[in-house]
Design a protein that fits this description.
The complex is a heterodimer.
Chain A lengths: L10 H20 L4 H21 L7 E3 L4 E3 L1 H27 L6 H17 L4 H19 L6 H32 L4 H7 L6 H17 L8 H8 L2 H7 L2 H15 L6 H22 L6 H22 L2 H26 L2 E2 L2 E2 L9 H4 L1 H15 L5 H15 L3 H27 L11 H38 L2
Antiparallel strand pairs in A: 1-2, 3-4
Helix pairs in contact in A: 1-2, 1-4, 2-3, 2-4, 3-4, 3-10, 3-11, 3-14, 3-19, 4-5, 4-11, 5-6, 6-8, 6-9, 8-11, 8-12, 9-10, 9-13, 10-14, 11-14, 12-13, 12-18, 13-14, 13-17, 13-18, 14-16, 14-17, 14-19, 16-18, 16-19
Chain B lengths: L1 H21 L3 H21 L3 H25 L4 H4 L3 H28 L19 H9 L4 H22 L11 H6 L2 H4 L12
Helix pairs in contact in B: 1-2, 2-3
Classes of the chains: A mainly alpha, B mainly alpha.
Chain lengths: 482, 202
Amino acid sequence: MATFPDLIPALPEIFLAVAAMALLLIGVFRGEGSLRLVSWLAVASLIGAGFLAVTGVGLTGRVVTFNGLFVTDPFAVFAKLLILTASGLSIILSINYLEKERVARFEYPVLAVLATLGMMGMVSANNLISLYIGLELQSLALYVLAAFKRDTVKSSEAGLKYFVLGALSSGLLLYGSSLIYGFTGSVSFERLAEVLTGTPSLGVIVGMVFVSAGLAFKISAVPFHMWTPDVYEGAPTSVTSFFAVAPKVAAMSLFIRVLVGPFGDLTAQWHQVIWFCAAASMIVGSLGAIQQKNIKRLMAYSSIGHIGYALVGLSAGSQEGVRGVLIYLAIYLAMNVGVFAIILSMRQNGRAVEEVADLAGLSKTHPLLAFAMAVFMWSLAGVPPAAGFWGKWAVFLPAIQSQLYGLAIIGVIASGISCYYYLRVIKVMYFDDVTEQLDRPALLTGAVATGAALFVFPVYIFFLAPITSGAAAAAASLFGAR
Amino acid sequence: MVNIAFFVFAAILLASAVRVITAKNPVHSVLFLILAFFSAAALFVLIGAEFVAMILVIVYVGAVAVLFLFVVMMLDINFQELRHGFLRYMPVGLVVGGILAVELGFLAATQLIGPVEAAGGPTAIPPVSELTNTQAIGHILYTDYVYAFQASGLILLVAMIGAIVLTLRSRKGVRRQEIGQQLDRKRDQVVAVRKVPTRGGV
């Protein structure tokens, strides 16, 4: 007779699941016009889940429950904190946008919360089954969100494209999982880590590569990046701001957990795959963005490049490398939320615009906004002393320590190239003439942009120590479990 | 007895499968498909896989085949035209069929040369005679895998919300029954007594 599983480790997830269903009921009963209420309640429940995750309800260290399907450790808590912050900020930013675009429906925050729940399941996965289920819960909600503006062709196309390609990547992942299960006889991460030592059989390696391909798709690493620019451009901007951060953090954390946990002893086998993905992502991200006129497409290529930099840390395969990736993700979160807050407030006469050229002369019309955008661009380019520089520092240093000189050189060159298009945005804002003035940004959006800008420079200095120690503890918990 | 039942159901299965692709009327094709599913379910019951049999009936007959039937009946597709290129595609079909036949031959050959059971192949633990499939699945689905089970429920909830978000439109000018309004109205709101003059009309 099986005993009742311990629910306490999964309390944040259970709380969020119940909250999502309660929000759905509130929305259904209040009908149209309940977006604002449901959104704020969603933010409140995300904060509640974050509180439960951080305090851990008295739990410390690594706890496994649900018959080994679910794990919570400092690594999961760190990733969950980033995910919840990103989701909460994205929901706050989307309220105004959805109302102005006339798609103010309460399902939006509900789906965002359910997607967040899927992401939390992903980072807490300790089994190929829970990995897949968390991933699907996240993806399915994101497909719907991408097509949320269903009356526009672009949004529907983005949703459909994301759905079809996402289904393909899920297929790759499942195929890989079935191969791994077939060749090892287990789906549990702990069991896999025990079994997979020395020289693995070919079937396991093929399976691992398929699983990596499925996950690389979710973080949009080259060569699985093709969907990113189209989906980023087509999806409603508030959804793009959501896509750009939280799912990336979740999928990246899951990727780290899978490669370091069950495949920890196969570093020699997966190292070349990650090396290639990192190098190709950095190159494609920096070269692809040069031609872009649409700022959402620009940010899509920018995110591909940044995932490449993050993968540099992972390809080092060391504890310091994983710590670097986590620091990188935290800083990436702040920069991207800020940039998207500004993109969301780009409106001319009430109409949303998304060309880089529409920012022309922003320094004369909205000097504060232009300055914030300039800070983000400096930081994204990785110019010291902005926060982005320390993120890159944190991933490149372990790579050099692991003698990955080639990757580090490619990374530095790619950073140099990427400076061009980041600085072009600044040039357009400061030196081009105003063609048509942008509307005044909404108070909340402006506040988020200002806050993020202040964080990126200079407030981050005070947070660098807690983030670094948190990331170090998270990485240590992952490597200690091996 | 079991042997006779097997041959009867297998024969029905094969015959209905042939009819699925040869029937002129697409509705008949779908109905034969349902018959084929039922016969296959009966075969599963014969080998003691009652859970798969029930799933086959519930999922394939209950949902998929009925969906097919709806599609066939609602969409006006000219199936005669679809068959037009039959001869052109036949070689490809024959090749695929040939490969399948060879694979089946291999399977039969390995069974004859070295049966899996003799080599210590998989057997159910505990044996099927002690615990049926349905019970065995029930034992672990709601205990060991309760997390996956509940999370799958959430995925289905997302699918439901998604379907509603993407397709539900509130149309204007649709007359709906409003029971509250019906019960609320008074006699003098809806009935008017008019004095109609003789040969005058209203």
